[in-house]
From TrEMBL:
Residues 17-204 form the GTP cyclohydrolase N-terminal domain. It comes from Terrihabitans rhizophilus. Its EC number is 3.5.4.25. The lineage of its organism: Bacteria, Pseudomonadati, Pseudomonadota, Alphaproteobacteria, Hyphomicrobiales. Coiled coil: none annotated. GO terms for molecular function: GTP cyclohydrolase II activity. It comes from the Bacteria. Residues 1-33 are annotated as: Disordered. This is GTP cyclohydrolase II. Residues 1-14 have a biased composition (Basic and acidic residues).
Length: 424
């Protein structure tokens, strides 16, 4: 079909009129009651985030950034705007919770603790036609990484046929979590006024969500950002028990290193090391937790990240630790936008009150975890021999900036150009 013919066939295909939801008070915009932090699922109430759904009580839409693809699919005529998911057999592969943290005031503000089990509390309402969808999915898988196979070959890990198979497969429970922000709770976490935060979110997304400023009666926001994936090693039924030893790596996405093995940073080596520690802990009867957050390039995004790489490698004096953070600040205006204040929410959701082995040297991660009331027993640094040569600049800069280490590099060390040149 020619583009012109396609355009004619699609003309005025979407239903009329447009439903504007930006003002409260009409029957179609009356939100379903919600009591964030209530002790029971039915007492809390359902999160309804599908545009045009009856009782919708959240700004934004399910699936984060992918909601824009869904909108395109509707516009292109590939998806019926009224499509409702058939959730048969999609319930969690392992139960998670409920845990006491789910209703402790202020403990969880950036995800829906009941988000994996709407069918449990609201099955009758869903059967009667209410559009209540999960924001969390829990499944099971085997993962296999060359680093884990190498750890077996080197004798550091021993397959047990349960947590770790002889072929290097590790058994995991994996959990995808979409962010669900309780706006008042998020504002309180950052110590800012809620209306100021709502206004900034409205204005600096190009006015994408007018309801942030016109609908104070809507308490929730499903932001169009990436969420978190959890990989659990060991028996998930042991979560929430004080005697269970927990190993944990909080990992912020780095596509270049995590997936493609780019050697400018320590991300994938540190992730693989974290998984090794998680497997060890699970084999001793504990639970290993990898929390993988979609915050590419310190949440500055990959374009900014690659611009910074160029700026680092082209600067006079070469790529060196003393100028590492400055180059990021020149491009982005800040060094980091990961807002680790929200990161401990997933740990509370998993019922964790103590981490026995935290596989991270970052104080930016350690401080909010401890500040949120979780005890950290031991901090596990990355073994020196796992750091790629080109990543030494990053490692030196982070150690000098207060990374958890007993080997802080001196001024002369930080001045040395250690990174590879752009054309090398
Ligand atoms: Zn990286």
């Amino acid at each position: 079909m020619s583009p012109e013919a396609k355009l004619r066939s699609n003309e005025r295909r979407l239903p009329q009129p447009i439903v504007i939801t930006s003002h409260p008070g009409t029957p179609s915009t009356q939100p379903q009651a919600l009591s964030w932090g209530a002790a029971t699922q039915t007492g809390r109430g359902p999160v309804i985030a599908t545009p045009n759904a009856t009782g919708r009580n959240a700004i934004g839409a399910h699936s984060g950034a992918y909601s824009l693809y869904r909108a395109l699919a509707v516009a292109a005529g590939q998806l019926d705007a009224g499509h409702r998911p058939d959730l048969t057999n999609t319930a969690p592969a392992e139960p998670i919770g409920p845990f006491p943290q789910w209703s402790e005031p202020g403990k969880i503000v950036s995800l829906d603790p009941w988000g994996h089990m709407p069918g449990q509390g609201f099955g009758a309402e869903i059967a009667a036609g209410a559009d209540i969808r999960p924001s969390i999915a829990v499944t099971k898988a085997h993962i296999n990484m060359p680093e884990i196979c190498a750890a077996i070959a080197a004798g550091r890990l021993v397959p047990d046929g349960d947590v770790l198979c002889a072929n290097g497969d590790a058994r995991v429970t994996k959990i995808a979590i979409e962010p669900v922000w309780h706006l008042a709770g998020v504002a309180r976490r950052f110590g800012i006024v809620e209306t100021d935060m709502r206004r900034a979110l409205f204005e600096h997304t190009g006015g994408m969500f007018p309801e942030l400023v016109t609908r104070p009666d809507l308490q929730l926001f499903l932001p169009p950002i990436g969420g978190t994936t959890i990989y659990l090693f060991g028996d998930t039924a042991k979560l929430g028990r004080p005697e269970t030893k927990i190993a944990c790596r909080i990992h912020d996405e780095c596509n270049g290193s995590d997936v493609f093995g780019s050697d400018i940073c320590t991300c994938r080596p540190y992730l693989a090391h974290g998984i090794e520690v998680c497997i060890e802990t699970a084999q001793r009867g504990g639970v290993g937790v990898i929390s993988y957050n979609r915050k590419e390039g310190r949440a500055l995004g990959e374009v900014t990240k690659f611009l910074v790489y160029n700026a680092r490698k082209r600067q006079e004096g070469g790529d060196r630790a003393e100028a590492y953070f400055q180059r990021t600040e020149c491009v982005a205006g800040v060094q980091d936008m990961r807002f680790q204040e929200l990161m401990p929410d997933v740990l509370h959701w998993l019922g964790i009150s103590r981490i026995d082995r935290l596989v991270s040297m970052s104080n930016m991660k350690h401080a909010p975890i401890v500040g949120s009331g979780i005890e950290v027993v031991e901090r596990v640094p990355i073994p020196e021999d796992l750091i790629p040569a080109d990543a030494q600049v990053e490692m030196d800069a982070k150690k000098a900036a207060g990374y958890f280490t007993d080997q802080v590099p001196g001024v002369d060390e930080l001045r040395k150009a250690k990174g590879r040149e752009l054309e090398a």
